[in-house]
């Protein structure tokens, strides 16, 4: 938190007129950001002149950690077409399609066996962080609201407007009903 309030070497995306950290990086307003596999994919497609690299998150005081985002291939128990749903899920999670996912670099593939096929060092850094990653697990109809509240809490700490404890206490009270 001292990068923003004490050392003055970091800015929040909102302070730069950007909607998110990836946008600030893409537009040359940030030298480094903490983002996911979607950023390299976006850079490769829309910001080809940006020279960048991807590394794993640095180890914290306790251990390595990361947040894993991916896609969910799920079949409703109430589907009217269970065989077609299974065929689609089987195709989407199959080796052939997941090799395309890996090549695109947008998300972690569902197949660990594909690790040997990684040729892009940026994809490798993302894939190598998976074993110690923690899954994103608060997806719900209120995910956007929860994310907004988390961002507000982080921002209040980063700007020195709140202590970590106070921000987390307020956040817990605010998002508890959104997660039920």
Low-confidence stretches: none
What letter string, H or E per element, gives the SSE order?
A: HHHEHHHEHH
Identify the overall geometry: globular
- Considering DSSP H and I runs of 4 or more, what fraction of the residues is helical? 40-55%
The DSSP helix count reads 8
The pLDDT mean sits at 87
The N- and C-terminal alpha carbons lie at a distance of: 30 Å
Strand content: under 5%
Q: Please describe the biggest sheet, giving its number of strands, its sense, and whether it closes into a barrel.
A: 2 strands, parallel
Q: Work out the radius of gyration.
A: 19 Å
User: Quick one: how many beta strands?
Assistant: 2
Query: Which class best fits the helix and strand makeup?
Result: mainly alpha
Report strand order across the widest sheet. 1-2
Note down, in words, how this protein is organized:
By secondary structure, the chain is mostly helical. It contains eight helices and two strands, in the order H-H-H-E-H-H-H-E-H-H. Among the domains are: 82-135, no CATH class; 138-180, no CATH class. It has a two-stranded parallel ribbon.
